[in-house]
Amino acid sequence: HTRCLSDWSSDVCSSDLSVRKPLYDFGQTKNNVNAAEIEKQAVVDDMDYQLSLRKLDIAKAFFNVVLADYKERWENEQVVITWVDHKADIDRHALGEISDVELLEIKSRLEFLENQRSISRSQQLVTRAQLAEMINRPGDLSANLSLPELTYHLRKLPDYEQLLDHLKKYNQPLKMQLAKTSAAEKRIRASEM
């Protein structure tokens, strides 16, 4: 703060400087820093968790493509088998062994299966497009997928209690909530001081 005499002819001025620095903040800074570190670690852990969820979504999309391929193959085989039966039934109809109604039932079944096969082929394209979107390659539909060698089914299942302990320890949403709670408690303690 600067003060001068009101007289313009005088060169007398004085200044005061006041400095304050708390010598001890009773742990407020430490609690704020600890809360920030907890929140930072929670964000890092959440990023890892979100990445693992993304990998699971990609795997799900991959296996949806595989399932759509299997379904289309099965539908195609059903059409071929029914078509062969239909051709044989046309001959049987010509010989008078089956009626017009029975022949129409078989033809109707063939048309239904051909429609199902067409739906399965459309589903193949949809699942491939979803996979392409999931891996950030829109429009780049996969032609042939090869199955990975899966060995998880060969492992021995862990004991229930062991599995429960593992879930409690590595449950990321639970860990996030606990970290947020801990950080909030530290901030509350810092604000009370």
Q: Could you characterize what this model shows?
A:
The protein is mainly α. A two-stranded antiparallel ribbon has the order 1-2. The protein is elongated and about 125 Å long.
The largest sheet has its strands arranged as 1-2
Content-based structural category = mainly alpha
Q: pLDDT below 50 for ≥5 consecutive residues: which ranges?
A: none
Q: Roughly how many Å is the radius of gyration?
A: 37 Å
Mean pLDDT: 83
Which percent band covers the strand fraction? under 5%
Instruction: Figure out the total of helices.
Output: 4
The largest sheet, given as strand count, sense and whether it forms a barrel, is: 2 strands, antiparallel
Question: In summary, what is this structure?
Answer:
69% of the residues lie in helices and 3% in strands. By secondary structure, it is mainly α. Strand 1 (2-4) and strand 2 form a beta hairpin.
Describe this protein with a few key phrases:
193 residues; mainly alpha; 69% helix; elongated
